Amino acid sequence: MVNIGIVIPAAGQGKRMGAGYNKQFLALRDKPILAHTIGLFEESDYVSEIVVVGAEGDIATIEELVSFYDLKKVVKICIGGVLRQDSVCTGVRALSPTIQRIVVHDGARPLLTLPAFHKFLKETETNSAAIMGVPIKDTVKQVDSAGNVLETLPRDYLRAVQTPQIFDRGILEEAHERASVSSYYGTDDASLLEWIGHPVHMVEGMQENIKVTTPEDLWLAERILTMREKER
Q1: Closest among 200, 205, 210 to 134, alpha carbons compared
Q2: C-alpha–C-alpha distance, residues 78 and 96, integer Å
Q3: Residue 15 — very low, low, confident or very high, per pLDDT cuts 50/70/90?
Q4: Which of 48, 108, 116, 123 has the lowest tally of Cβ within 10 angstroms?
Q5: Range of the domain at 18
Q6: Sheet of 201-204: strands edge to edge?
Q7: How far apart are the first and last CA of the chain?
C-alpha cells in the first residue's frame, strides 16, 4: 500500500454555499476546508504524491495555501477543466509515471480521518476499483419528470457514495480515455468504470465524511470537529 497518488478536484465554485468564492477556501476551525483535506493525506505514510486541481482563478490562492501549511507532498497544482471529470483526468496525468495506484478525493470533504483512510486502503488493496459508501437512511422514491412517483426503491441495496475512491492507474486512464472519445460524462469516476463494464467494489464509509456544500454543512462540520475534540 505504498506509492499512492492522490488527486484532489477542487475547481468547483460552490454556488450553493453563497460565499461569492470557492467554498473550499472557507474557514473550518480557522483553517481553510481545502487545507484540512490535503493535510490528511500529507500525514499518511502510504501517500507519495498529491495533485490538486483548481479553477484558473484559484491557482495562486491554492499555491499560497500549500506553502503556508507546508504541504510538501503536493507535487502539482493544475488548472481544472469544465467539469469534474475533466479535472480528475488532468490530475491523473500530472502524477509521476511511478504512481500506479490512485485515490480521488473531493476537496470539499475535510472530515475523513487517517484511521478511516488507512482502513479503506487495507480493505481495497486487492480491488482494481473501489469506493466508499454509506447506507441510505431515508426512503427513496423514483419519480418521473412530472414529479409522479414510479416506485419505492429498496434501501437495503442503496448506498450514498463518498470519496475517497481508489483505482489502478491503467484502468482509470482507460475509462477516462474511452469516456472522452465517446463524450460520456459520469457523476463520479466509479461511474466511468461501471460504464466500460469494469467491476467496482464498495466498502463501508463514514457518516461523518460529509461533503461541505451548503452553510448547513459547514455548521455540521464544525459540530463534528467539536465532538471529536471532546472524545479525545
Answers
A1: 205
A2: 14
A3: low
A4: 123
A5: 4-231
A6: 74-79, 47-54, 4-10, 101-104, 159-168, 129-135, 201-204
A7: 28
Residue 8 C-alpha from the chain's centroid: 6
**pLDDT one-digit tens code per residue, 34-49:** 999 999 999 999 999 9
Rounded (5°) CA angle 71-68-97: 30
* Residues 45-65 pLDDT 10s: 999 999 999 999 999 999 999
Domain count, the chain: 1
Number of Cβ within 10 Å of residue 143's Cβ equals 10
For residue 55, count CB atoms less than 10 angstroms from its CB and return exposed for 0-12, middle for 13-18, buried for 19 or more: middle
* Grid cell listed for 64: 499560497
The CATH number assigned to the domain holding 161 equals 3.90.550.10
User: Cell numbers of 80, please?
Assistant: 481544472
Span 176-221, pLDDT tens digits: 999 999 999 999 999 999 999 999 999 999 999 999 999 999 999 9
At 199, list the grid cell. 467491476
Helix (H) / strand (E) containing 129: strand 129-135
Q: What is the DSSP secondary structure assignment for residue 183, as one 8-state letter?
A: T
Cell numbers describing residue 166: 481508489
- Interval 113-129 mean pLDDT: 97
Give the residue ranges of DSSP H helices in the chain.
33-42, 59-68, 84-94, 114-123, 169-182, 189-195, 215-231
- Rg of the chain (C-alpha set): 18
